[in-house]
Amino acid sequence: MKRMKWWLLCWLVLYLVFHNITCQGQKGKRCCKRKLGKKEKISDTRCCMEDINSILENGIGHSTIEAIESLEQMLEETEVNETTYISNNRLVAALHRPKGPFRGLEINANEEVAMSDRAVTNSKVRVQLPKGLGVGSDNTIVFCMLTWPEANGTIWEAPGEIYESRLIGLSVRGKNVSGLQERVNITMNLTLNRNETREPMCVFFNFSTKKYSKYGCETLWKPGQSHITCSCDHLTYFGVLMVSADISDKDQQILTFITVTGCSISLFALVLTILLFITNKTIRADISMKVHINLAIALILLNVHFLPSHTVAALSSTGLCLYMALTLHFSLLATFSWMALEGFHLYLLLIRVFNIYVRRYLLKISLVGWGVPAVIVSLVVIIDSDTYGSVPLDSSNSNSTAICYIRDNTVKMVTTVGVFSLVFLFNVIMLGVMVQRVLSLHHSKEFGQKIHDRAKREICTLLGITILLGIPWGLVFFSFGHLTTAGLYPFCILNSLQGFFIFLWFVMSLRKIGKSAETSGVTHSINS
Fold first, then answer.
1. pLDDT score recorded for residue 526
2. Which residues have CB under 8 Å from 275's CB, separation 6+?
3. Distance of alpha carbon 233 from the chain centroid
4. How many Cα atoms occupy the beta-carbon half-sphere of 460 within 13 Å?
5. Which residues, in sequence order, are CB contacts of 205 under 8 Å at separation 6+?
6. Looking at the whole model, is its pTM more than 0.90?
7. CATH class (in words) of the domain with range 34-244
8. Do domains 34-244 and 249-520 have the same CATH topology?
9. What is the pLDDT of residues 72-85, one digit of tens each?
10. Could you tell me the sign of the dihedral formed by the alpha carbons of 191, 196, 201, 206, in that order?
11. For residues 53 and 47, what is the distance between their CA atoms, to the nearest angstrom?
12. CATH topology of domain 249-520
């Protein structure tokens, strides 16, 4: 009997504890439950806002996401005949129902009140809704500003700090607004310290994926400005995410100048290289030089389409930008392909010294060098032609310099960084084999040859092979994270001048052929 009493007492305690936890979990949702198709009263909406305010004070997890969705639905269904303003501590809302043709709307808000078409003291946010929103008298425009306790950390697993822990929600009853031609502008006051190393970026919260995104939003801000404007083509909850400013505007200008200057020099040098190849019969007969000249053609295409890409992106011609982006992608992939084929050709010369004759060798490697990039680009176009278009060079600032290139980050990483990673790994191995071969021949000194001259020749050979294999492109792996600026300077300098270095390699090869012909009367192959 006593044992049964103890079991009954334990069960009662557990029941009370569980009931208390359940009630706590349901607290804050009693007013936010709504019936389908039912018009909500202002009093019910105020009660829901009180409950949501309590949730904001106590948590920032998925429970608040569900609560905010419920609040948004209730605000949209709240019955109003004119503009109505509601506020409750950390929540400020404005409900506007147009009475005639909608000609746009401006909403100003501070931490206590939101007003339409009039200024408020100590304004924090100004929202400008375009007339192209297309709302009528049966629609209700909802503005809602949420502010979290700053001690609560990140908001909804944001990839950084949301400025002033504030989100701005915009919606229209009965409409899913997206793809606006005339954008919505949300302007927020912004105060940054002089020593601040981060920059603001406009983002929105995607309730479907439960993640933040910047797609469809432009960040209009310059260093020193006291405000930031988020110009977006849809409605949802917006915020300002503070991101690391890896590259300053000054560094970006210098890097752009270095890249444009280096590519221009390389383009001129590569054209001279083609002319040297055409006018010299001895070089035209050499297989290795034919491989080199294909790499030079790929680099010419890359530079020709990269240099004017910024100008084309500034134009309104979508078709021309699509062509530039597609050809730029093809040229880059062709450059990587011929770098890999340079490594493959080096493998045949160093490893398989005997029995390396391949029928129609140049035709076969040309099919690989130009065919593989064409297949990759064709597949991207067939799957989604919108992958190509105008994109900002600085992904964290959509208002920065734009070029015509790949929009989708996944496609960009797989088809460029992924492909190059494989090429780079293979060519590094080939370079290692080349270094080993040079070191093994170091002890076999030719008669009358000075050590200094031999060392100089070996160093020049290795540097030339390094350029042909595209090893300096590997500096791209040091241009992420904290090494961004430090890695980009040598990357831009060396790779923009790759064409010029190839031209020097051709000139040195011509001199070598000329000296060999003078001393022996026999023309030696460049391969030797």
1. 33
2. none
3. 19
4. 14
5. 156, 167, 211, 212, 236, 237, 239
6. no
7. mainly beta
8. no
9. 888 888 888 778 88
10. negative
11. 10
12. Rhopdopsin 7-helix transmembrane proteins (1.20.1070)
